[in-house]
Specification:
alpha+beta, 2 domains, eight-stranded mixed β-sheet, elongated, binds zinc ion
C-alpha cells in the first residue's frame, strides 16, 4: 500500500513539473494554420537566391524579399539596421510587433539569413539557415493579428557566418545603448535535418557558458521550450549546450537565451550541397508548428473574447477611483474571475480570485505610491480589461 501511494505521488510530481505549461486550444488553432506549402515555398525561394555572403547581390535580394514578405503580411514597423563590414553595407531586418501589457519588454525570435562563402563556390544555405528564416516568416504571418502581452521582435540577422557580425552589431549599437528590456532571445538556426533519415528530435539549447548569471533562467526557459515543443508538435527533444550562433553575443552580455538546432546534423551545411533536396521539409514543417506554439506562449498571446467587442466589453467594467488611495473598486456587468496587479517592472504583486464577480473592492492601503498595471480575466483566462493604476 505504501509503495502504491509513493508511486502515485511521484507520478503527480513528475507530470506537474513537466507540464506546468498546459495545452491551449487557442494556441493550437493558430498552430494548425502552419502550412507545409508555405514552408516549402520559402525554402525554394531561399535556394533560388544562391550564395548569400557579404558583398553578394544574393544577400541584398534575400533582404528585399524578407522586407516585402513581412510587409505583405501586414507589418509596418520594420527596422532596417544597416552597418558597414569589409566595405559592404549589410542589413539586419527587424520586424516589430507591439505587446499590449508590456510594450517595452521584448521576446526576440531570430535566425540569420546569410550563408557561407567559399567551399566549392559557397553555400546556398537552404538548411543553414533558410530553415530558420522560413519558420520565423511563418510564425510572423500567423501572429500578425494575435494579441500578445509582450512585444516581439522577429529578427533576421545578416553575416552570422562571418562570426555573428550582424547580431553583434545590433547588440552593441542598439540593444545595449538603448538598454532594451529583453525577456528572452529565441534563436532558430539549422533545423533542416537530413534527407533519408528519421528526423524526429529537436535540440533545445540552453546556456551553459560563462558568464553564468543568466544560466538558470536560460535553463528554465529551455525546459519550457521542451514542454511546448511536445505540446504543439510530434517531435522529441534533447536539452543541449547552446553554441555557435547569433544568441552567443547576447549570452555574453548576460541576456537570457534559448534555441533550436537539428538533432541529425547535416553533412551539407557550409557547402554547395546545402540544398532543398538534402534536407527534410516535413521536419522543418514540424519545427514550425513547435516554434509557433512556443512563441505564442513565450509572448503570452491571448484570445480576444468575441461575445461582444473588446472595447465595448472593457466599457462594462469600471475600475476606480483614479488615482487610487486605500481601496480600489471593480464594478462590472460581466463576470470577472481574477485580478492580477503588477508593478512597473512587470512583477506580479497581487493575484486574487474574486469572490463576487460583479462588485469587488481590493485593499490598496499597503501598496506603496506609484504606478501599477492591472489585468482582469474571465474564468477561461481571457483578458477582459487591462490598464494602469496610480496609487497616490
Ligand atoms: Zn547557421
Amino acid at each position: 500500500m505504501k509503495l502504491i501511494i509513493t508511486s502515485i505521488f511521484l507520478i503527480f510530481i513528475t507530470s506537474s513539473t513537466l507540464f506546468s505549461q498546459t495545452h491551449s486550444t487557442f494556441y493550437q488553432s493558430i498552430v494548425d494554420g502552419v502550412k507545409y506549402d508555405s514552408v516549402l515555398n520559402y525554402l525554394k525561394k531561399v535556394q533560388s537566391f544562391g550564395v548569400k555572403s557579404p558583398g553578394t547581390p544574393a544577400l541584398i535580394n534575400a533582404k528585399n524579399w524578407l522586407v516585402n514578405k513581412y510587409t505583405l503580411y501586414g507589418y509596418s514597423n520594420i527596422q532596417i539596421d544597416n552597418f558597414t563590414y569589409n566595405g559592404n553595407t549589410l542589413y539586419n531586418v527587424i520586424v516589430n510587433k507591439t505587446g499590449t501589457l508590456y510594450p517595452t519588454t521584448y521576446l526576440i525570435v531570430c535566425g540569420h539569413y546569410d550563408s557561407k562563402a567559399g567551399g566549392g563556390g559557397g553555400s546556398p544555405g537552404v538548411n543553414d539557415n533558410g530553415s530558420g528564416v522560413s519558420i520565423i516568416l511563418e510564425i510572423a504571418r500567423l501572429l500578425k493579428n494575435v494579441n500578445t502581452e509582450y512585444s516581439i521582435k522577429f529578427i533576421n540577422f545578416t553575416a552570422e557566418e562571418t562570426g555573428y557580425t550582424g547580431s553583434s552589431n545590433y547588440l552593441n549599437n542598439t540593444v545595449i545603448p538603448q538598454n532594451l528590456d529583453i525577456r528572452l532571445v529565441f534563436n532558430i538556426d539549422e533545423v533542416g535535418g537530413v534527407a533519408g533519415q528519421i528526423n524526429d528530435i529537436i535540440k533545445c539549447e540552453s546556456d551553459q557558458s560563462s558568464p553564468t548569471v543568466n544560466n538558470v533562467n536560460s535553463a528554465a526557459f529551455t525546459d519550457t521550450l521542451m514542454t511546448l515543443t511536445s505540446l504543439y508538435s510530434n517531435l522529441g527533444t534533447n536539452n543541449t549546450n547552446a553554441y555557435g550562433s547569433d544568441y552567443m553575443p547576447f549570452q555574453s552580455a548576460e541576456y537570457i537565451i534559448t534555441g533550436y538546432f537539428e538533432d541529425n546534423q547535416s553533412p551539407d551545411v557550409h557547402s554547395s550541397s546545402d540544398l532543398l533536396a538534402n534536407l527534410d521539409t516535413s521536419y522543418v514543417f514540424e519545427i514550425a508548428k513547435a516554434a509557433t506554439g512556443a512563441t505564442l506562449y513565450l509572448a503570452q498571446a491571448y484570445e480576444n473574447t468575441n461575445i461582444i467587442g473588446e472595447q465595448e466589453l472593457a466599457d462594462f467594467i469600471k475600475v476606480f477611483p483614479t488615482p487610487v488611495n486605500d481601496q480600489l473598486n471593480i464594478n462590472s456587468s460581466v463576470p470577472v474571475y481574477k485580478i492580477e496587479i503588477f508593478d512597473v517592472q512587470g512583477r506580479l504583486i497581487l493575484e486574487n480570485v474574486l469572490s463576487n464577480q460583479f462588485n469587488n473592492t481590493i485593499n490598496f492601503s499597503e501598496f506603496q505610491n506609484g504606478i501599477y498595471h492591472y489585468k482582469l480575466s474571465d474564468k477561461n483566462g481571457s483578458i477582459l480589461k487591462s490598464g494602469i493604476l496610480v496609487k497616490a
